[in-house]
Amino acid sequence: MNTKPLKRSIAASVFSLAVIALVLTSATYAWFTSNGEVYTSRVEARTNDTDAHLYISPAGGSDFRRTTEAAITQLNDADVEKLLPVSTDDLVSFVYNKATQNGRNDSFLLDKDAERYYYGCVYIEAEVTGSGSYRAMTLYLDDIESLVSPESGSLFANAGRIGLRLEDGEPLILAMSEDSNAAADQSRNTYIGDTLLADGKVLHYNAANETVEAADDPAVLPRTVSVSSPDAVPLATIELNRIYQLHIYFYLEGCDPDCSDAVQTDGADAVISLFGVLEE
Question: Is 223 inside any structural domain?
Fold first, then answer.
């Protein structure tokens, strides 16, 4: 499928959709806890000859509802108000540190039931009516440098991740910003055996032998998938009038040096805005 967008004009083909609003509070300890609420909303764009809509619903199939606001429900019995630090490189397997001993995090287990991170989903549908000959919509992020507001603290801004995966597509992991805590407020205490995990690394779970390995941190900054960036990589290209499931993950990357108990009673506001570009 050709994913190069045809941009007729900003007014005709590009619109933004506020997808996620997240508020976090109450960091309490290293590999810490936070609280969150998540919502979605919808906007639309209109031209003289074409109406473009991107709809969101908490349910798919015949239960799809073209709502203006829908809660993203945690898809298990875990406490939706708590985020506990985990690590992943693929949004498939998340591992956590069982206990910190002698200042070292080196005892890792697989979080089989998503009890320490937030996982939910919404369903989206792009609809275009009118005389335009459009066949698909390519999705990008909004024209934003960071996903967090300037008033937000460093808890989720610097150590948090948002993961997105459309249906069975490739996962996308977004770092909230490129800022970091002061050096004195960072923590490097993740070990694999006797080896300290280097900066820029996270943990990968090897299911074949049930071990944990070092892996490159796959998180990218929002501008790399922003519609305003000349070399932006699209999030996805979706067919019109088809309902897609969008998997959403919120987690604190425990291997990030900014995931430190130096950050306490902190909070952040995070918003993802999607841009849809119509393709002929």
Answer: yes
